[in-house]
Amino acid sequence: MDNTDIDWMNHALLLADKAEAQGEVPVGAVVVYQDEVVGEGWNQTITLNDATAHAEILALREAGKNIGNYRLLDTTLYVTLEPCSMCAGAMVHARVKRLVYGASDLKTGAAGSVFNIIDCEQLNHRAEVEAGVLAEQCSENISRFFRKRREQHKLRKKQQSSGLLSDAD
């Protein structure tokens, strides 16, 4: 991990803040080519009513448009949370050279935590992986979001049981 990785992960964390502001799981991603941003994204599955609108997918789509090719050779994808299997598969198909992520995802991570799609010898492309860049900040971002969500859910249930809210509210 070098200062460049830290700088780009900080950029991804700012994108994660955009997701959180929209009520989305706070994950941000940025695709970098020759030290320039060519694509960025943040989770927008709820906003766009699209199960594929993960931060990584949106960043890869934008990078492909900006580069003019779906093959994103010699690029690095920075993302605040370890990619899921869908996003890892898209990275393999896009030929991303390097993945740098912050927090590990012990439930659905596909870059080594649960699955290892990124470095799978049966596939036609493998990416270098750097895990744990700003892991503490990235992990706390996700944890804080879900803590708030659980608190809101408890409050809502309490209000419903006391008659302050109807089930339809």
From TrEMBL:
Chain ranges of the CMP/dCMP-type deaminase domain: 3-115
Name of one Pfam family that matches: dCMP_cyt_deam_1
Keywords from the UniProt entry: Hydrolase, Metal-binding, tRNA processing, Zinc
Record GO biological process: tRNA wobble adenosine to inosine editing
Presence of keyword Iron-sulfur: no
Active site residues per record: E56 (proton donor)
Molecular function terms, GO-annotated: tRNA-specific adenosine-34 deaminase activity; zinc ion binding
Cofactor comment: Binds 1 zinc ion per subunit.
Cofactor(s) named in the record: Zn(2+)
UniProt keyword Phosphoprotein present: no
Gene3D superfamilies in alphabetical order: Cytidine Deaminase, domain 2
The EC number(s) this enzyme carries: 3.5.4.33
Annotated positions binding Zn(2+): H54, C84, C87
InterPro entries reported for this sequence: APOBEC/CMP_deaminase_Zn-bd (IPR016192), CMP_dCMP_dom (IPR002125), Cytidine_deaminase-like (IPR016193), tRNA_aden_deaminase (IPR028883)
Catalytic reactions of this protein: adenosine(34) in tRNA + H2O + H(+) = inosine(34) in tRNA + NH4(+)
Subunit: Homodimer.
Biological role: Catalyzes the deamination of adenosine to inosine at the wobble position 34 of tRNA(Arg2).
Matching NCBIfam families: PRK10860.1 (NF008113)
Family to which the UniProt record says this protein belongs: Belongs to the cytidine and deoxycytidylate deaminase family. ADAT2 subfamily.
Protein name: tRNA-specific adenosine deaminase
Gene expressing this chain: tadA
